[in-house]
From TrEMBL:
GTP binds at residues 63-67, 84, 107-109, 129, 164, 169. It catalyses: GTP + 4 H2O = 2,5-diamino-6-hydroxy-4-(5-phosphoribosylamino)-pyrimidine + formate + 2 phosphate + 3 H(+). It is an enzyme of class 3 (hydrolase). Its EC number is 3.5.4.25. This is GTP cyclohydrolase-2. It comes from Streptomyces althioticus subsp. attaecolombicae. Keywords: GTP-binding, Hydrolase, Metal-binding, Nucleotide-binding, Riboflavin biosynthesis, Zinc. Residues 19-185 form the GTP cyclohydrolase II domain. The lineage of its organism: Bacteria, Bacillati, Actinomycetota, Actinomycetes, Kitasatosporales. Belongs to the GTP cyclohydrolase II family. It comes from the Bacteria.
Length: 219
């Protein structure tokens, strides 16, 4: 059977923006969250916001967490992502209210899982994280935070206290209409496996990581 076509033979207009699809309770080791699932019609990604308590509208404790399979699921010490996710979930539970927006499609600062693994292989040969992406002909950071802003607006959030060391996240939220009242550091103690990576984030990507000054003895 032939699919119906819109008026005057035109194809139906494609949907854009972010759409809330489902809200489900999610008990975790950190507390009882609500997992609110969204569909990003612009990129086709499925997204989720983990909401704790009554958010309110202003000064909501918020984390925009970029998907990192190796760190979040496998406990990789190449980065601090898994520890940051855990710390953010603990923080919003301790606060009594807050949201962690988990951003899929952000793997490897937006280059994808296999490309990230290729970049990690180059880093093992001596390149830093910026040099590795560029050597693969890929952008240093390809992430887009429009969907995060759309999700926060859908949740009724006007302004946030943003748990992040990355000034670009703050700039992106403001650009997309979400005010950032405060940037809350999310500092994880470095280890020998990630100290070079973290120093590169500070020196080449402008992340605010003042605690690295106290760990100069790590190689």
């Amino acid at each position: 059977m032939t699919e119906k076509i819109g008026v005057l033979g035109k194809q139906p207009q494609r949907r854009t923006g972010v759409e809330r699809v489902v809200n489900a309770p999610l008990p975790t080791v950190y507390g009882k969250f609500q997992a609110i699932g969204y569909l990003d019609h612009d990129r086709g990604d499925e997204q989720v916001a983990l909401v704790y308590g009554d958010l309110g509208a202003d000064r909501v404790l918020t984390r925009l967490h970029s998907e990192c399979l190796t760190g979040d699921a496998f406990g990789s010490q190449h980065c601090e992502c898994g520890d940051q996710l855990a710390a953010a979930l603990r923080a919003v539970a301790a606060e009594g209210a807050g949201v962690v927006v988990y951003l899929r499609g952000h793997e490897g600062r937006g280059i994808g899982l296999l490309a990230k693994l290729r970049a990690m292989a180059l880093q093992a040969e001596g390149l830093d994280t910026v040099e590795a992406n560029l050597a693969l002909g890929l952008p240093v950071d390809a992430r887009d935070y429009a969907v995060a802003a759309g999700m926060l607006k859908d949740l009724g959030v006007r302004s946030v206290r943003l748990m992040s060391n990355n000034p670009r996240k703050r700039e992106a939220l403001v650009r997309h209409g979400v005010e950032v009242d405060e940037q809350v550091p999310l500092l994880i103690e470095p280890c020998e496996s990630n100290i070079t990576y973290l120093r590169t984030k500070r020196e080449r990507l402008d992340h605010h990581l003042p605690h690295l000054d106290a760990v100069g003895h790590l190689s």
